[in-house]
Amino acid sequence: MPELTTILFYIFAFITVGFAIIVVSTKNVMYSAVSLFMSLFGIAALFLLLRADFLALTQVMVYIGGILVLLIFGIMLTTKITDAEIKTNNLSYIPAAFFTTGIFVILIFVLYTTKWNQKTPIQNEETISQIGKALLSSYVLPFEIASIVLLVALVGAIMFSRKK
Amino acid sequence: MEITLYHYLTVGAILFSLGLYAMISRKNAIMILMGIELILNACNLNFIAFSKYGGLGVDGQLISIFVILLAVAEAAIALAIVLNIYNNFNTANIDEVDSMKD
After folding, report:
1. What digits encode the pLDDT tens for the residues A102-159?
2. B79 close contact with A: CB closer than 8 A
3. pLDDT at position A10, please?
4. Which residues 44-103 on chain A approach chain B with CB closer than 8 angstroms?
5. Any alpha helices (H) in A85-139, and if so which ranges?
6. Which residue segment(s) compose the domain that A152 sits in?
């Protein structure tokens, strides 16, 4: 009888990978967006299994609540729904599939031949307070730069989408 | 059988490859954006796997937070650009956008 975390890992890994395959294979852009939603949920669950509770919540809030809604807005605004032309075509499947398979094989080869610096994981530790302390002590400069990046992105997005 | 670092890295590699495939093979600009999101998620998964199994600790999670943040900024800007392209060319397919001026 395998452990519960093992079973959960396989379930969530299959959800993540399976829906990611649907994302790249379906012709309907809307189906891709919904599959991406499920795939991101699977990744959030994997984050929980990796004891990154704060990251899992951030993933759900930012990716699913923010980026995905933005993507669906983009789909709605850039396809003519009345034409039922919400489908997308694929360009050059076979070279792309060969190239990606090659990259995948190389990645797997590198992953399994490298001797990673592994340590035994620390059990049951909450991370939110550690992240908060690190953000305001050793990571305070990246934190401030990140806020500037967000501000610039906001201004840039407004500038791009403004009517001339 | 216990879950190790390699399981998570494998999932990350699969997601990365799928995202790359979406980026190469899709015409629609929004599908390319979805490919980028998959790639960024694969990278986040690797960072957090190393934060648990590789002794990276809370640093790995902080890097992931910054990656998520950049993904948000990137998605906002990229969608604004895609909307502009759609307004100018009346299509969101990248291969039909072939002139600098309209």
Report:
1. 999 999 999 889 888 877 776 667 788 888 888 899 999 999 999 999 999 999 988 8
2. yes
3. 93
4. 46-47, 49-52, 54-55, 58-59, 62-63, 66-67, 70-71, 73-75, 77-79, 88-93, 95-97, 99-101, 103
5. 93-113, 128-136
6. 124-164
The CATH number assigned to the domain holding A31 equals 1.20.120.1200
Neighbour count for residue A42 (Cβ, 10 Å): 23
Whether the predicted pLDDT of B10 surpasses 90: yes
Fold of domain B5-93: Helix Hairpins (1.10.287)
Specify whether A13 is located in the same domain as A77.
Answer: yes
Output the DSSP codes for B40-74: HHHHHHHHHHHHHHSS-THHHHHHHHHHHHHHHHH
- Residue A80: inside a domain: yes
Q: What ipTM score was computed for the predicted complex, to two decimals?
A: 0.89
Residues in B closer than 8 angstroms to A62, CB to CB, are: 68, 71-72
Contact assessment for residue A36 and residue A23, using Cβ atoms and an 8 Å cutoff: yes
For residue B29, name the pLDDT band (cuts at 50, 70, 90): confident
Q: Output the six-digit token pair for B6.
A: 């390699």
Q: Are residues A138 and A92 in the same domain?
A: no
Question: In a 10 Å sphere around its CB, with 0-12 CB exposed, 13-18 middle and 19+ buried, how is residue A5 labelled?
Answer: exposed
pLDDT in tens, A24-83: 888 888 888 999 999 999 999 999 988 888 899 989 999 888 888 888 888 888 876 555
Partner-chain residue, chosen from B8, B58, B92, that has the shortest CB–CB distance to A78: B92
Count of domains for chain A = 2
CB neighbour list of residue A124: distance below 8 Å, 6 or more residues apart:
A51
Arithmetic mean of pLDDT, A6-18: 93
